[in-house]
Amino acid sequence: MTIRVLVVDDQTVVRAGFVAIVDAEPDLTVVGQAGDGATAVALAADLAPDIVLMDIRMPGLDGLAATRLLTEKADLPKVLVLTTFDLDEYVYEALRAGASGFLLKDAQPQDLLNAIRIIATGEAVLAPTITRRLIQTFTQPQTPTPAPSPLLNSLTPRERQVLTLIAAGHSNAEIATTLGVTVGTTKSHVNALLTKLNARDRVQATITAYNLGLAHPRN
């Protein structure tokens, strides 16, 4: 199945570069381009892309607002945010808005292509440097263990293990190896966990893990 991609960036040269990289792949196709958030939202409604490559800082409707509009729809595309700086004040808010991943614009072409394919399967992608900045944004270095919350209490011991490993960036295969179970069993745990957390993907599950005190930033 071909993955349909909408490329959104206010810089024409940058946008053309992303289009060339994506269109060169047999399993990917660019169905449209936009230079601002409002155009992106309109085109997404008409073209029904699977993935939107979204710049954040654009004139008019920025990428943050556009992401929120795109992901609140029932038949929503997944959004991969491409940002110039790993310390971007909008990154965490874009996660809350529903973005499924982040990469720096200077990422290698193969990393971009891999990210598109991973997000299309329902997984999430975060550049390592962005992950570190993101964690620092919404956690304190010496955060005390929070009082048990109803959400935390609703998780089984195994689900807590799985959530902790997700927050550490482990794939399903790595989680299966760590826990000594099959990948299929791991997928079942992950799906059940996302449902309990009301999280659309592993990125939002990771945020919840930090908020619940199940994961902590590394020095």
UniProtKB/TrEMBL annotation:
What SMART domains does the annotation carry? HTH_LUXR (SM00421), REC (SM00448)
Q: Which GO terms describe its molecular function?
A: DNA binding
Q: Mention any Pfam family matching this sequence.
A: Response_reg
SUPFAM superfamilies in UniProt: C-terminal effector domain of the bipartite response regulators, CheY-like
The Response regulatory domain covers 4-120
Q: Which UniProt keywords apply?
A: DNA-binding, Phosphoprotein, Transcription, Transcription regulation
HTH luxR-type domain residues are: 148-213
Which Gene3D superfamilies would you find in this protein's record?
Answer: 3.40.50.2300
Q: An example of a Gene Ontology BP annotation on this entry?
A: regulation of DNA-templated transcription
UniProt xrefs under InterPro entries:
CheY-like_superfamily (IPR011006), NreC/VraR/RcsB-like_REC (IPR058245), Sig_transdc_resp-reg_C-effctor (IPR016032), Sig_transdc_resp-reg_receiver (IPR001789), Tscrpt_reg_LuxR_C (IPR000792), WalR-like (IPR039420)
Report the source organism.
Kribbella sandramycini
Look up the signal peptide feature and give its range: none
Which residues does this entry mark as bearing 4-aspartylphosphate?
D55
Q: What is the lineage of its organism?
A: Bacteria, Bacillati, Actinomycetota, Actinomycetes, Propionibacteriales
This chain belongs to the protein called DNA-binding NarL/FixJ family response regulator
